[in-house]
Amino acid sequence: EDFVRDHVAFQGPEGRVGWEGLCAFLADYAPEKVQERVGIPAAQIRNVASLFAGSRATMSLWTMGLNQRVDGVALNTTMNALHLITGQINKRGATPMSLTGQANACGGVRDTGSLAHLLPHGRFVNNSQHRHEMEQLWGVPAGRIQPTPGLDAIHLFQAMNDGEVKCVLNMCTNPAQSMPNLDSYAKGMERSFFVVVDAFEDTLSMRHADVVLPAALWIEKEGVFGQSERRYQLVEKLLSPPGEARSDLEILIDLAERLGLDDVVTAKTAPEVWEEYRELSSHSKYDFSGMTRARLREHRGLQWPCPSEEHPGTARRYMPGDPFVPAGKDHYFYGKPDGRAVVHLTPYERRSEEPDDEYPLVLNTGRILEQWHTGTMTDRIAPIRNGTPRGHFEMHGFDARRLDIGDGDTVEVKSRYGRLEGPCRVTTNTLVGTVFATFYDSELPINVLVTDRHDPVSKQPDFKTTAVSVRKLG
Known about the structure:
Layout: H1 2-7, E1 8-12, E2 15-17, H2 19-26, H3 31-38, H4 42-54, E3 59-62, H5 64-67, H6 72-86, E4 95-98, H7 105-111, E5 118-119, E6 123-124, H8 128-138, H9 153-162, E7 167-171, H10 175-178, H11 182-191, E8 193-198, E9 211-214, E10 223-226, E11 231-235, H12 248-258, H13 270-281, H14 293-299, E12 302-303, E13 341-344, E14 361-366, H15 382-387, E15 393-396, H16 397-402, E16 410-414, E17 419-427, E18 434-438, E19 466-472
Helix pairs in contact: 3-4, 9-11
């Protein structure tokens, strides 16, 4: 209670509320009231809550199951809220931690501002002060950065379908296999001038390409890698890329020069880019200006903030040891002017696709341990390919018996977006009422079935809850 009183604020629909406001909000979510909805007895909910709050240190780890949903933002903020209202944060072993799905997603995407709505180091495109800061730092005229965020992936591909986006440069991803509601977006890749930069031949996306640019692999280029724990690590070049393959940076620099943007893109090499990026960071709460390339080579990774070359890096933010925490403060959440972390009291709203008589089961998609993303790297390695099953559906034995489906039978799975045939494995790993499938196998492009409904804030598609029907074939 002391931690909450001193360091947490509660944001309701009408504004800030106190502890009493939190208690009033939670009255509708008492275990006895929600046990039927969530399928977990009230006593078990209370036991888990007691373990969570009473532990000496609680860490929450989650992957795409919370993120790739129409209510992903609300689920993530709720996980953070659980840690804040129990004080399970800012101490050794106690933290909420989202495990990202792609390597370097934190460093190379989030921190650099490489999303349609972001600018570097926690700045936002729709914030005029942030735009002005970056225009000054980049030395470009005021107003050069457009005030409207760019298109997220779903709306970008819809705009390609509609002919509003004429040309797309596609790097480091395989959307012809990974996009939801896949068939509806294929025509956009055909209609636009589609340039694919890839290190692997014959991906599904490459088949839609007008131009293919061969890219260097990670061991064939150098750069800095950013991990989930804010650790930046230098990855050095081990081999020269074959043939005409070049690094992503060289390709982007070449494009910038051909577009006449030499005056904007002045850093041309990986070391020059890092020096510019270090300087940009010094004007933010990310400040890692102390991470010289020489230090990264020596230390094998440092955690930001790291504001000087003598600073050891920051293991935990918002507490003593963080250079942005004022002296005498035991916790200080400096992302907000008053130094308080905010818990948003967001009412539960079921927005995911509901099963019905026509589509009575729920399709959940995801990864397996051995295969990464769309299999462009891992599925080409013979021991991995031979040691993992080809794409298939998995169904609980209860549902399989009800539908007269045996292990190994071929089934047809239909959704509101498409249909697909494939083998079915009967298992107890999945929940009753659900079907699971991985998406790494290009021969079973599971995303033709998946809804493209998405979270209204993050725009993350709901890969986890598509209503489907299943029937045995043959």
